[in-house]
Amino acid sequence: MKGADFTEIQQSSQRAQIQDALSRALEAHGSAQLLFDGYDRALARSQGARLQAWLTNQLVDGVHARDIGAIFTARCSTAVHREGAGSPLMSRVTPILPPTLDKTVPKSESGKSWFGDAAVIADRVSSDGRLTPQVLIDQFEFDATYITDVRGAAQTQIERGTLDPIHDSYTARCAVHGLLHPGGKTRFLERLESALLASPESNPAWPEQASASVDRFVELISGADRVIWSDRYMYRDIEPLRSFLQAVIERSDAKIHLLGGREVSDRTVTRAEMARLTSLEDVGARWMSRSDLRDLHERHLVTGPGGWVVPQVHVIVGRQHPGSAVAARTSGFGVDYWTIWRRSIEPSTLH
């Protein structure tokens, strides 16, 4: 069973599906094995307590409990018990750490530097020729629940920068799998460390001062190799934007791709104005195509699979008071920005 299949409208039917499968297996073989992948996701639903009580009956207290075995998987440090639901099912479970790579299997030093001995993560990269360690880490970085889970379970270990396999708790050891090993930090942790050590209560409001605005923008793109900043009105005021970008690129190695409309404030942005931006190192600037212009209403900062919903450009570059403007993290967008970038209009190609 997959925990992701337990939606709010399918909880009872998914329980019935487990019941039917167990009944058929017991009738045919006299025994059954239940593999429940993503159990924590199902338990988080509104009927999670009912699911827990039902599974406790099937696997612990029921007539056929001795004939049924079960394996549960869950993300590290997520809830695997609902209070007030009878016998705590997870108290009967033997926890097992995620697998590590067999020491007899040759593995490149570069691979070990990324993920240590974390077999599942390393195998994910090696089995998919299109997936690089950087791309996979981007997926972790912009999964806010992963960052929150690890921070809550293993902040001490992350701050310490080492793993004690004897004295550290089981939950903490699970949480830092691939991030830490007895020898120290992996490159995986180096990329995520700022996010993992950031205060979870950081103020989302956009700052008023120009220098603080630069600080905030640099923080948002930290760890990214390339970003897209999309705003239909990006090019309203070229010089303040250029000054802002100059301050940012002095403190960041990310390549910044600007995407905005060609027509702003009843005028056409010129090639010369665009050249003022693209003359900056590591800055590219293009116009949205007419076919994309109508869909790109939101102001986004794309730093990986996800990124940030950001205030309008005038607020960020200090031309307008931020008021109630905030920057909010998002795990994904409704459009593929890199595909849009490739088909956008490069000013130097126009005559």
Distance between the termini: 59 Å
DSSP helical segment count: 15
Question: Helical percent range?
Answer: 40-55%
Strands side by side in the biggest sheet: 9-6-5-10-11-12
Could you give the count of β-strands?
12
On the 0-100 scale, what is the average pLDDT? Answer: 86
Q: What sequence of helices (H) and strands (E) makes up the elements?
A: HEHHEHHHHHEEHHEHEEEHEHEEHEH
Instruction: Point out poorly predicted stretches.
Output: none
Principal-axes geometry comes out as elongated
Question: What class do helices, strands and sheet pairing give?
Answer: alpha/beta
Largest sheet: 6 strands, mixed
> Over all CA atoms, what is the radius of gyration?
25 Å
Oligomer: single chain
Strand content is: 5-15%
Report on this structure.
The chain has a six-stranded mixed sheet. A two-stranded parallel ribbon has the order 1-2. Strands 3-4 form a two-stranded antiparallel sheet. The mean pLDDT is 86. Helix content is 41%, strand content 12%. The relative contact order is 0.08. It is elongated, with a radius of gyration of 25 Å. It has 351 residues and is α/β, with parallel strands linked by helices. The protein is built from 15 helices and twelve strands. The termini are far apart.
